[in-house]
Structure formats: structure tokens, C-alpha cells
């Protein structure tokens, strides 16, 4: 029987090292560690990610999958529910680092099954709701940054990206494209792409200050 830690790394605050250390501090030990970097948990299904697909290929009956929280599998309600059902159908045990929760398909009592499935559904729905709220906050921040951009204010360092590059980064990231591919498609460095996707509001504000000054 094999234990696998799966991590989805979407921001600098959710590094693989952080997720692994947290799991080890809670007493988890693993045979393999798989991680997908820079992918959207909303628009990219688990099986569509490079390491997510590998995870599907590796897991067998009796294996244990460890995740920091269910939202690492995804932030799409339907996909997460389907993934959890598939893993339990295979006889895989899913354990979360946060709160030490365990989900498996061994339960036969209908009431316990109903409670388990309801909890999975709630957690999956919460993950999607949080992702949508974050995106809405980002859009609001971008709108506010545009409104407050002042041509006479200190502009800071000139952005290393153009309006077209910024829009392309947003579009590709929204489609779940990896940071490496976005960097190649936009001719920007990976560090620049990371800065943009991690704080779209500030990226917009910085560019707006220079655009308005030029006008």
C-alpha cells in the first residue's frame, strides 16, 4: 500500500515545501509527493493537470492520498465530488492534513454514507465559493486601481510588461495555463508572470499609472 501527498501550488503562500512540512508536522509520511504548479483549481480538472493525471494512474485499492485540504484537488464543485467518488470507488483512502479528516468507501451504513457524501459536497462547494469570491475581489481591486490612478502621483518602477501582455497573462491564467507556458507565450519571465497572477490589482495599478502619465 502506497501513501501519496498531492499538492496544488497556486500562489507563493501555498508552496510545495509549506504543504509538505505541514503534513509532516501532523505525522503524515509518504512514499511519493506529486505537485502541480500554477494551475487553476476552478478551470482545470484534476485529471487535466500533468501530475493530477499521474495521480489517477498511480492510485490503487488500499492506497492513501494525502492533501492539505480538499480544495487542493480542485475548486470546481462537480469535479471535486466526481474525483472523490472515483477514488473511494477504487478503494483509495483520502485524508486531509487540516482537521485530520478521512474519507473512504468502506462505509456501508446508508446514514453514514449520506453524512460522508454531504460533507464532501459541502467542502467542494465551499472551495468553489471561496475561489469565486477571491476572483470578484480581484476584479473590484482592479476597477478601484484604474479609478484611482493619478497621472501626477509617484509611478514607481515602470512595469516590464505591456497592456497586451498583461491581458494575455490574465486570459491564459484564467484558462488554467501553467506559468511556464504563459511566460513562453508572452515573452515574459516566470517571475513577472507570478507577480501578475498573484496580485492582479497591483499589476493593473502599476500599468495604469504609466499609461495615464503617457496620455
Please describe what this structure looks like.
The structure is a single chain. Helix 3 runs antiparallel to helix 4, helix 5 runs antiparallel to helix 6 and helix 7 crosses helix 8. The longest helix has 39 residues. This protein has a five-stranded mixed β-sheet, sandwiched between helices. The chain is 54% helix and 11% strand. It has eight helices and five strands; from the N terminus they run E-H-E-H-E-H-E-E-H-H-H-H-H. It has 215 residues and is an alpha/beta fold. The chain has two domains: 103 residues, Rossmann fold; 66 residues, Orthogonal Bundle (Arc Repressor Mutant, subunit A). Strand 3, helix 3 and strand 4 form a beta-alpha-beta unit. The model has no long low-confidence stretch (mean pLDDT 87).
Number of H/I helices:
8
Question: What is the domain total for the residues?
Answer: 2
Secondary structure tally: strands: 5
Question: What is the CATH fold-level name of the largest domain?
Answer: Rossmann fold
Distance between the termini: 64 Å
Q: CATH homologous superfamily name of the largest domain?
A: Resolvase, N-terminal catalytic domain
Return Rg in Å: 20 Å
**Helix and strand pattern:** EHEHEHEEHHHHH
> Biggest β-sheet, characterized?
5 strands, mixed
Shape-level CATH architecture of the largest domain: 3-Layer(aba) Sandwich
Strand order, sheet with most strands: 2-1-3-4-5
Structural class: alpha/beta
**Proportion of helical residues:** 40-55%
Query: Which CATH top level class of the largest domain fits?
Result: Alpha Beta
Please mark out the parts with pLDDT under 50 across 5 or more consecutive residues, or reply none.
none
Mean pLDDT: 87
Strand content is 5-15%
**Which geometry do the CA atoms define?**
elongated
Amino acid at each position: 500500500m502506497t501513501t501519496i501527498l498531492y499538492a496544488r501550488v497556486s500562489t507563493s503562500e501555498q508552496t510545495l515545501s509549506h504543504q509538505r512540512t505541514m503534513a509532516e508536522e501532523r505525522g503524515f509520511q509518504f512514499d511519493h509527493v506529486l505537485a502541480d504548479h500554477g494551475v487553476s483549481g476552478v478551470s482545470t480538472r484534476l485529471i487535466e493537470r500533468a501530475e493530477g493525471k499521474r495521480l489517477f494512474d498511480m492510485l490503487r485499492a488500499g492506497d492513501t492520498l494525502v492533501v492539505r485540504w480538499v480544495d487542493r484537488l480542485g475548486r470546481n464543485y462537480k469535479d471535486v465530488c466526481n474525483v472523490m467518488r472515483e477514488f473511494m470507488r477504487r478503494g483509495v483512502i483520502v485524508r486531509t492534513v487540516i482537521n485530520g479528516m478521512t474519507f473512504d468507501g468502506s462505509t456501508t451504513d446508508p446514514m453514514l454514507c449520506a453524512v460522508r457524501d454531504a460533507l464532501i459536497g459541502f467542502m467542494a462547494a465551499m472551495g468553489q465559493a471561496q475561489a469565486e469570491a477571491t476572483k470578484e475581489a480581484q476584479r473590484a481591486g482592479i476597477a478601484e486601481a484604474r479609478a484611482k490612478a493619478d497621472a501626477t502621483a509617484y509611478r514607481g518602477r515602470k512595469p516590464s510588461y505591456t497592456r497586451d501582455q498583461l491581458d494575455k497573462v490574465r486570459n491564459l491564467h484564467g484558462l488554467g495555463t501553467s506559468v511556464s507556458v504563459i511566460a513562453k507565450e508572452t515573452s515574459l519571465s516566470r517571475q513577472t508572470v507570478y507577480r501578475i497572477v498573484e496580485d492582479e490589482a497591483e499589476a493593473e495599478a502599476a500599468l495604469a499609472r504609466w499609461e495615464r502619465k503617457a496620455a
